[in-house]
Amino acid sequence: MTEFQPAYLKLLHSGELARRVEAAYEHMKSCDLCAWKCRANRLAGQTGVCKTGEKALVSSYFPHMGEEDCLRGWRGSGTIFFVRCNMRCQYCQNHDISRPDAEGLAVEPEDLAAMMLELQAQGCHNINFVSPSHVVAPILAAVLIAAQAGLRLPLVYNTGGYDSPQALALLDGVIDIYMPDMKYSDAVIGRRYSKIPDYPRHNRRAVREMHRQVGDLVIDPQTGLARRGLLVRHLVLPGGLAGTKAIMRFLAKQVSPDTYVNIMGQYRPAYRAAHEDMGPLSRPVTMSEVIEARRIAEEVGLHRFDDRRRVLS
To answer: Does 274 map to a domain?
Structure first.
């Protein structure tokens, strides 16, 4: 395989990356950088649905060994956890940093760029932005600074999947690996348990666009590391609440049968689901439910799954 070059270098050298940064901050004056499109003027101190102003808030950053094998490799995925979120999942396992009132370190783009460069110096295989949808503008500004200073790692956009076309247009040619969740196939379920309107429509449109930009996931056969493409996460929920069959059929028929999918079976009640009666969400998912989800995915034609195989060193 030829030597890897991250996508954003081409935009850096042409001057387009700098133009994208300017355009992203213009969008923040009437924010439409996630699917809410709440039109808050975040440059004037308004915070909108995400409760985040102009600056990104960071909880932590470190080499993460718990991600998919093709991301974590043997030195970790360089993960940056952003505080707050544009979704309100009632069972969020990261609720301590995703809540609207969660506290974090307010960073300038220069600070965020320094984190990325530090993670690269530690040997991480990629830069992994977790919950980035509400901080697209600061991320782009930081990528510009970091790329000018020598960043050469692939960028991972690790999102809940409630993203807007406007944000994805700004990220086109910047992000190497899109890793969206596909949480629900039913809008009513999405509103009930994540407090968001019309999740399936926005989510599917975003996933189609992500795939158009980067294609199927490309994995280096020598190292087992992901270089570019789409990786979809699907959390199996108790009682079939996620609508797995419809989601897997969508991926196989409307995106690509070669879509790389992580069918996740770690659901357990957390946050409000751990203390309130939320029907099926008040219990852990069963192994039989996870096995059935995998069977469904294979039945509709999907065949590339994250099976936690060891990555070569």
So the answer is: yes
How deeply is 305 buried, as exposed, middle or buried, from its count of CB atoms within 10 A (0-12, 13-18, 19+)? Answer: middle
pTM: 0.96
Number of domain units in the chain: 1
pLDDT tens, 254-301? 999 999 999 999 999 999 999 999 999 999 999 999 999 999 999 999
Tally Cβ neighbours within 10 Å of residue 90: 18
Q: Any idea what the CATH number is for the domain that residue 105 is in?
A: 3.20.20.70
Tally the C-alpha atoms within 13 A of residue 49's C-alpha that lie toward its C-beta: 20
Residue 42 lies in a domain: yes
Q: In terms of Cα–Cα distance, which of 136, 133, 145, 83 is closest to 109? A: 145
Cα 290 → chain centroid: 22
Angle at 204 between CA 202 and CA 207, to 5 degrees: 110
Q: Tokens 């295989």 sit at which residue?
A: 125
Which DSSP category does 204 fall into? H
Range of the domain at 18: 8-305
Mean pLDDT value of segment 221-237? 97
Encode pLDDT of 91-131 as tens digits: 999 888 888 888 999 999 999 999 999 999 999 999 999 99
Question: How does DSSP classify residue 272?
Answer: G
The total number of residues written for the chain in this structure: 313
183 touches 166 (CB < 8 A): no
CA 65-67-70 angle, to 5 degrees, is: 100
Nearest CA to 132 out of 159, 102, 156, 110 is that of 159
Residue with tokens 């718990």: 66
- Which amino acid type is present at position 109? P
Beta partners for residue 82, in sequence order: 58
Q: What stretches of 125-186 show up as alpha helix (H) in DSSP?
A: 136-148, 165-171
Q: In this structure, what token pair is assigned to residue 227?
A: 């270089």
